[in-house]
Amino acid sequence: MMKILAINPGMISTKVGVFIDEDIKMHACINHPFEELCQYPFIMDEFDYRKEKLIEELQRQGYGLDFDVVVGRGGLVKPIESGVYELNEKVIEDTLHPRLHHACNLGSLIALSIAKEIPGCRAFTVDPGVVDELEDVARITGLPEMPHQTIWHALNQREIAKRYCKEHGVKYEEQDLIVCHLGSGISFAMHHHGRAIACSDALSGDGPFSPSRAGTLPSVQLIQLCYSGKYTEKEMLRKVNGHSGLTAHLGTNDVRVVEQRIKDGDEHAKLILDAMIYQVARYLASLAPATYGHVDAVILTGAMSQSKYVSEELIRRLEYLAPVFVYPGEDELTALAHNVYRALTGQQEIKVYE
Q1: 74 in Cβ contact with 129 (< 8 Å)
Q2: Of 237, 269, 239, the residue nearest 256 (C-alpha)
Q3: Which residues are 30's β-sheet partners?
Q4: Degrees, nearest 5: CA angle 122-123-124
Q5: Is 332 within 8 Å of 159 (Cβ atoms)?
Q6: Closest of 299, 316, 341 to residue 165, by C-alpha
Q7: How high is the pLDDT of residue 159?
Q8: Selection from 72, 90, 128 nearest residue 353 by Cα
Q9: What is the per-residue pLDDT for 331?
């Protein structure tokens, strides 16, 4: 019997789960109020605060630090292939100096810190957002010094794709699946025979605009805005990655609020939401050439896929391409725990981060 602690930090919350083998026994979402997070100038400064809140929640629900395994959401380290990685000093060093700053960087750090307090406990991470399995042709852009990179919801996308395959009696390693994670950020990938050979850089302005991100912008206008004198570099980065998308157009990043406005007759809100849906569909369809037009299924997941309006409109725009399936929400805690369990029981490889 294996007791597993799974940790998934988000920007304003930390999700935690306790598993016995593959069965979840406890799940909690620890919300971090804005005024508390404001005490910390940088995300990495939140380490002690989040770890303490996590341990308090475990104790509140009757759990002590007696786990066999701790697994944390992976940080934005160097590009690696998908899989289960045992945490070592090299991955921690790179996590402390990440490509970009995001709360996910705290996952590995907290996981290893807790594991070190428990005799015999091991620490892992699974499918971090920097998983890179792109085909070479997908890396080329119009500027040689700016190759296409990937930051995407690899963990949830791969877990949901595998669930779809299991439910439909097919092998993930034999399918061509377009998968889209619809959240505050939107990422998409073509999963070709078990590898994401084409996918987005969701954190760096690639793809459709989202509830809080700008997505792809006209480069000339963007450059002109950067040099307009209106914004500093820090302000521009924050503007396109947090204060744009639905937030910029409608003053909210909550699709439920937007839908209510539409029901109340707000035509402008409908136009903006429909534009985002249109952009999502356009970018998903653009993945088809990666497999010469062969697509077995389109899969929608993430919190925003819970919206009937969003999901139904996307199905209308994409069902010509392939059957569309919706898996609302995300299942990253389960993905973390199940992958580690399979690795430690010999069902898949444990990889080394070098």
Answers
A1: yes
A2: 269
A3: 14
A4: 130
A5: yes
A6: 299
A7: 94
A8: 90
A9: 86
Q: Which residues contact 168 (CB under 8 A, 6 or more apart)?
A: none
Interstrand relation of 69-73 and 122-126 (parallel, antiparallel or unpaired): parallel
Closest CA to 83 of 22, 24, 136, 124: 124
Three-state SS annotation for the chain: CCEEEEEEECCCEEEEEEEECCEEEEEEEEECCHHHHCCCCCHHHHHHHHHHHHHHHHHHCCCCCCCCEEEEECCCCCCECCCEEECCHHHHHHHCCCCCCCCCHHHHHHHHHHHHCCCCCEEEEECCCCECCCCHHHHCCCCCCCCCCCECCHHHHHHHHHHHHHHCCCCHHHCEEEEEEECCCEEEEEEECCEEEEECECCCCCCCCCCCECCCCCHHHHHHHHCCCCCCHHHHHHHHECCCCHHHHHCCCCHHHHHHHHHCCCHHHHHHHHHHHHHHHHHHHCCHHHHCCCCCEEEEEEHHHHCHHHHHHHHHHHCCCCCEEEEEECCHHHHHHHHHHHHHCCCCCEECCC
Q: For position 337, what pLDDT does the model report? A: 98
Quickly count: other Cβ atoms within 10 Å of residue 68's Cβ.
17
pTM score, whole prediction: 0.92
Which amino acid, 292?
Y
- Ranges of residues in the chain with a pLDDT under 70 are none
Q: Are 188 and 287 in contact (CB under 8 A)?
A: yes
Those residues whose C-beta lies under 8 Å from the C-beta of residue 153, and which sit 6 or more positions away, are: 129, 181, 183, 185, 187, 202, 302, 330
pLDDT in the model for residue 276: 98
Residue 23 β-bridge partners: 20
If you search the block for the tokens 């849906």, which residue do you land on?
Answer: 277
With vertex at residue 350, the alpha carbon angle to CA 152 and CA 4, rounded to the nearest 5 degrees, is: 80
Tokens of 4: 């597993």
Report the alpha-carbon distance of residue 77 to residue 85 in Å, rounded.
Answer: 12
Q: How far is CA 115 from the centre of its chain?
A: 24
CB atoms within 10 A of CB 288: 18
Sequence-distant (6+) residues with CB within 8 A of 37 are 12, 46
